[in-house]
Amino acid sequence: MKKQLLFMALVGLITSMVSAADLHVRNLGAGGAYATVGAAITAAANGDRIIIQPKTNGTAYVENLTINKSLTFVSETIYNKYFIQGSINITPSAGRVVTFNNLSSGNFTIYNVTVTGATTGGRTTVNLYNCYLNNVDGSFPNTTTNISGCNVIGYIAISHGRVTGNTSGSLSAYSQGTDTSLATSDVEFIGNATTSGITNQQDSYNFKFWNNFTSGIYAYKIKAGGSDEIINNTIYQPNGGDVAPIYIDIANANTAGNITIMNNAVSFVVGQTTACIEYYGIATVTATYNVFTNAFVTSGSPITQSNNTGAVNMSFNNTTYTVTGGNVNAGNPSVLYTDLDLTRNDAGHYGGSNSWANYWGPDSGAMPQINYLVTPRQILNTSTLNVTGSGFSK
Q1: CB within 8 A of 354, min separation 6: which ones?
Q2: What average pLDDT values come out for the chain (394 residues) when binned by 10 residues?
Q3: What is the pTM of this model?
């Protein structure tokens, strides 16, 4: 009886492993494929992969999509994107995973990738890799949105997830409600370029804002008792504004926690404030080894600070995403923060283990893309080297 049960279990395992199928979508249904992506979605089962042929004349599959299954979408042609002109709405469900590789939404600001509601009894996960998109909205509770190597014209708004190596108009951690099925990881924004700032308005998770090139970093909520990090970012604001380039206002939340501001390189045109860091609240905020082209000034609630430097000669370029000058070797000298070449940390987005260089290779079109990489800088002779990484093919 035991052997029979074991055989039945193995049969069940093999059946589940081979159940996923590939469904093809081609222009006019060539070769017996589906003519539309929507038809393939209707025919697909959970776990299937939909392989989409980019149309040879560059035109789009013109259709609005509703995705109510766990599916993966990929391009039939290596390195090429398929063009879907329409809104993509993902229906939430516990355990649902939807992945898009090489999707283009075209230059239409009305077509978005959206999770349409909160997930009950679990989490919905959306993965977007090497895509050209308009807006991404994953701001409902119990949704994880992972985005890497994408160009997003407008905003990215997620309630939880990891966002690495993208360009976008703005980037925010924001939830339309409180998560009831909590994820086990933090909100992580690493190696992104944004024109309109990076914002945290989420109080269910710690946030880690590392190695971004942006016009400002703002926090209006934090997790109670949590630990948050603004490390090795380059902040360049050439137009002036009414708040500091690093602005934290959690006074209304009355929330205690810890926020570390370290190794950032910053330049801004003085608007309504001369402050480099502006903070209001009861959390513990520590600012160290930051460099500013402006005189170093803080305002608002007390900040624990040391080794910050103002009036530093630096040159910023928000087209090529570079910063040069006095930021070199200006970051925290601890070996924990050394650069990839094991020299002292450079303040700004190229400094440290999470360097911008991890996510922006010299050949951004044809080579595989790193999605995430953790390489510890300090290794003892009694310890084991643990390197964590993931990636995807374009």
Answers
A1: 190, 191, 210, 211, 231, 232, 373, 374
A2: 47 53 95 96 98 92 97 93 96 98 90 97 97 96 97 97 96 96 96 96 97 97 96 94 94 92 96 93 97 97 97 96 97 93 96 92 66 71 75 72
A3: 0.92
